[in-house]
Amino acid sequence: xxxxxxxxxxxxxxxxxxxxxxxxxxxxxxxxxxxxxxxxxxxxxxxxxxxxxxxxxxxxxxxxxxxxxxxxxxxxxxxxxxxxxxxxxxxxxxxxxxxxxxxxxxxxxxxxxxxxxxxxxxxxxxxxxxxxxxxxxxxxxxxxxxxxxxxxxxxxxxxxxxxxxxxxxxxxxxxxxxxxxxxxxxxxxxxxxxxxxxxxxxxxxxxxxxxxxxxxxxx
Length: 219
Fold this sequence. Notes:
Elements: E1 21-27, E2 33-39, H1 59-72, H2 77-88, H3 108-113, H4 122-140, H5 143-152, H6 154-160, H7 167-181, E3 201-204, E4 210-213
Antiparallel strand pairs: 1-2, 3-4
Helix pairs in contact: 1-4, 2-7, 4-5, 5-6, 5-7
């Protein structure tokens, strides 16, 4: 959650009994204020029931980790924080049903690629996540496509020639971009980066095998 605060104000956040969170505030160089939340209880959507919280990471230490690895990967720290917020809500022990782990939800293959011995260690996790995000930026050239590749994989972005028409991926890209830009109206609707999916058809071939194709019957 990011809010730009203008003048003195009081923010009241109601998250309900199932999602209590601790709010962190970071002053940006331009004088604006960056606000994000760190859940103080297990998240319910992206983690398994067996997930346990790691020892609390001091915000100063986490900010230092993010800044150092962002600089090393030539990324803006605000972008990395936005990705972490959407990926794990700043839970270093988060694990998705697909096996993604830690703050930046690093997949096992990515952890192996960057020699990560403990994907739940914030320093190793953010190091691998930022390097992979930089790799996606170098491959696709734009932030929207890099974020889509980070979420859905580079093969999907290449196959569709843009942000794949997966609701989860589009929602992911929009959430990160809104946080990063501080613009809650950002949308991929009408964007040149978004791609429409092609309608698929099921048919049987001459041998009776069931096939899925994008060619209409008789095409």
